[in-house]
């Protein structure tokens, strides 16, 4: 028997970041949108916990107990007093260390898959609590759609979205470490008064209306200056996307993936071609959002 769960990447259409808290985290107003780039996580019974990974970035994915998918299996098994004896296979299409919550996605998917495989009976609320222990982005990977994340981003309120948004994503030549980007945010803000993070009403309206022009006027990412400071070449990629007609160009989360909001599928193709030809990025993908969160794709009886 095996269970396969498909799970999407995310882009942050607003990422408002407050001052560092005593625990080192930052309060956020984090507006997440799930987009149609997916990892697929398959779990099947095994003698002991084992992780394998396939995909273009597979070499950068840890296969030991630090993998978020392994940590998810261990967390659920620990709560049920059982052994996490499971083979977790990750078919990875979400860029690694790209600011699109790839590891978080695998954590949410593995948790959901193990809950099904083991008939562990964890409720939605228990799954969300385990997700929040695993990482700030993990709860959103489970629920998908669009949501406002407050606290460190793990406290979610679902958001209405009145249409489909068309995106282009440009993956960079190397990754960026999320903690390093938050540290750079702190360094750049030293001595400044950092306001409390709040969700932008115009942005929430634009999402509710499904209006790409209005959304483009409202997107923001407080981590962008920090990501650009650590990875200045990203400014060139952003400029290429803007020049190719994107309505908005921004760094996705902690970066270094850059995200381009376009009017429609045709404009997305045009911007994608210009970005591919520019030589300023590694790969270019188009995707639409919102899409649902972690979803069981199938069970197989074969071992
Ligand atoms: C940048 C985002 O991807 C935007 O969605 C998230 O805020 C990061 O979420 P994540 O990768 O799940 O982050 P976590 O695994 O919870 O934390 C990794 C590190 O990021 C920093 N971190 C993360 C979230 C947050 N609200 N404040 C932080 O300062 C901390 O240094 C933390 O040690
Ligand atoms: N299943 C996983 N897939 C990818 N990376 C993982 C996984 N589990 C742990 N990691 C570790 O997490 C690091 C960050 O990878 P990830 O792809 O999650 O970054 P990210 O998309 O920038 O995260 P976020 O957007 O949530 O900040 C990797 O360099 C790797 O060491």
Automatic annotation (TrEMBL):
The keyword ATP-binding applies. Residues 67-145 form the GHMP kinase N-terminal domain. It holds the Pfam family GHMP_kinases_C. The active site is at residues 10, 137. Pathway: Isoprenoid biosynthesis; isopentenyl diphosphate biosynthesis via DXP pathway; isopentenyl diphosphate from 1-deoxy-D-xylulose 5-phosphate: step 3/6. Residues 204-279 form the GHMP kinase C-terminal domain. GO terms for molecular function: 4-(cytidine 5'-diphospho)-2-C-methyl-D-erythritol kinase activity; ATP binding. The keyword Transport does not apply. It catalyses: 4-CDP-2-C-methyl-D-erythritol + ATP = 4-CDP-2-C-methyl-D-erythritol 2-phosphate + ADP + H(+). Its EC number is 2.7.1.148. One of its GO terms (biological process) is isopentenyl diphosphate biosynthetic process, methylerythritol 4-phosphate pathway. ATP binds at residues 95-105. It is an enzyme of class 2 (transferase). Belongs to the GHMP kinase family. IspE subfamily. PANTHER family: 4-DIPHOSPHOCYTIDYL-2-C-METHYL-D-ERYTHRITOL KINASE, CHLOROPLASTIC. Catalyzes the phosphorylation of the position 2 hydroxy group of 4-diphosphocytidyl-2C-methyl-D-erythritol. This is 4-diphosphocytidyl-2-C-methyl-D-erythritol kinase. It comes from Streptomyces cellostaticus. The lineage of its organism: Bacteria, Bacillati, Actinomycetota, Actinomycetes, Kitasatosporales. The gene is ispE.
